[in-house]
Design brief:
single chain; alpha/beta; 7-stranded mixed beta sheet; 17% strand; disordered N terminus
Length: 424
């Protein structure tokens, strides 16, 4: 059984790696620089990860179309972690030990990214940029010096996300929900932070219940959650388990008022549940606001991957993560991990010339980096800035599920100042 499992993983890595290589156009350059991209293609986060993977490869293609990095073709070696931390570590070790990649982009879940960080990237002294992991644990590790300044993320910490969720819950959804959260670092931290802010606003959950991922049935947990007659459900989890849980909640008579964590905001998830059963369903998303550079990226991405593809969760974040990695390598002028680490923040030099996402923006950015001139990459997310811990901040969009079972912005924005005020 073990040999069969290893064989499946190896075959998956080979097929995904071939896909990633195919994404790079043939160029005159006779050298290749490879970065690792570890994104869930199967497992609980598959519905989100499949779109994210396309965006990561699209960024690689655009970098190559813009001229490549340090005179070489950029290759994105894409791997599937199957939404399992142990598999993420296996794939990361292969990429670092065999392919000798200087940067890893990934993964989605905090559990997978944390396992990669502690077992592979820090011990191997390479840079890791995650486009989706939100646990406050990463910030704490950075403060303790355990990330060695090698960890960055283009996704906000749950310490911020919980504030936005609590504000939306209290203002738009319910005052007495039941909180149900996945029993891992992501779920525990987000539930804790949410309850703290929600209480300050005047909200009072009926209870908070943990659930373990991968169960065939959640009937006992749903029965417990319904005790106390909650006004609705705030669920922190993944689309895979969420589908099973929410269907059971509805069948047992749970009120059709929902707030979902950002990791669940998948159109496929809402479609699988059915819009007529969702009633009043909300979420929040830390996202780049409307801008010229975002519109350029969205237009080009949708042209390559289908209308509306750019609205999928975290596609903008993985694109920017890959671009930032590539530009850091170009600024460093080599693939030495320490030089790349020191160059990541130079991609966002506040004194540099502003360059955007999309093909023309990347051509300009690479030209500036090659000429050793300062640049300020304002990508699909806009002009984000890494703080000393590798975190970003920014506004949150208030989202709602519409009549087509799509999650869409309501037009309301929680600003950075509003978020920070609620955190005090």
């Amino acid at each position: 059984m073990l040999n069969r499992t290893l064989t499946r993983r190896m075959l998956g890595a080979v097929s995904l790696g071939a896909l990633a290589l195919a994404a790079a156009p043939v160029q005159a350059q006779n050298c290749t620089i490879t970065i690792g991209i570890i994104i869930s293609q199967t497992g609980a986060m598959a519905s989100i990860g499949q779109q994210m993977a396309k965006s990561g490869l699209f960024a690689v293609k655009q970098i190559n179309d813009a001229g490549g990095v340090n005179g070489c073709t950029l290759k994105g070696d894409l791997r599937d972690d199957q939404t399992q931390a142990s598999v993420a570590v296996d794939q990361a070790k292969q990429l670092v030990d065999i392919s000798r990649v200087p940067v890893l982009v990934g993964s989605i879940t905090s559990a997978a990214s944390l396992a990669m960080l502690t077992s592979v990237t820090v011990p191997s002294k390479i840079v890791q940029i995650t486009p989706a992991s939100s646990s406050p644990t990463f910030t704490q590790l950075a403060k303790e010096g355990k990330t060695e300044g090698r960890f960055f993320r283009t996704f906000t910490s749950d310490a911020l996300g919980a504030v936005a969720a609590a504000k939306v819950a209290y203002d738009h959804v319910f005052k007495r929900p039941v909180i149900v959260y996945i029993n891992n670092d992501y779920g525990v931290n987000l539930a804790k932070e949410f309850q703290s802010v929600f209480a300050k606003l005047g909200g009072k959950p009926t209870q908070a219940i943990a659930f373990n991922p991968g169960q065939a049935s959640y009937a006992p947990e749903v029965a417990k959650a319904l005790q106390g007659d909650p006004e609705g459900l705030y669920m922190i989890g993944t689309p895979g388990d969420g589908t099973t849980f929410v269907r059971t909640w509805i069948s047992q008579g749970g009120k059709q008022k929902f707030l979902f964590s950002d990791g669940m905001l998948s159109d496929k998830f809402f479609g699988d549940i059915g819009v007529k059963f969702l009633g009043d369903a909300w979420g929040t998303r830390n996202s780049g606001l409307k801008s010229d550079t975002r519109e350029i990226w969205a237009k080009e991405f949708d042209a390559a991957n289908g209308p509306g593809s750019s609205t999928a969760l975290a596609t903008d974040r993985v694109y920017d993560a890959v671009v930032i990695a590539a530009l850091a390598i170009q600024i460093a002028g080599n693939t030495k991990p320490d030089d790349i680490r020191d160059s990541v923040r130079k991609v966002q030099d506040e004194k540099g010339e502003v360059v955007g996402a999309g093909l023309e923006g990347l051509k300009k950015a690479l030209a500036l980096a090659k000429a050793k001139k300062p640049l300020r990459y304002a990508g699909a997310l806009g002009p984000i800035q890494f703080d000393q811990w590798g975190d970003i901040t920014g506004p949150f969009l208030v989202m709602k599920v519409n009549a087509e079972a799509k999650i869409a912005p309501t037009g309301t924005v929680l600003t950075k100042d509003e978020i920070e005020k609620l955190m005090k």
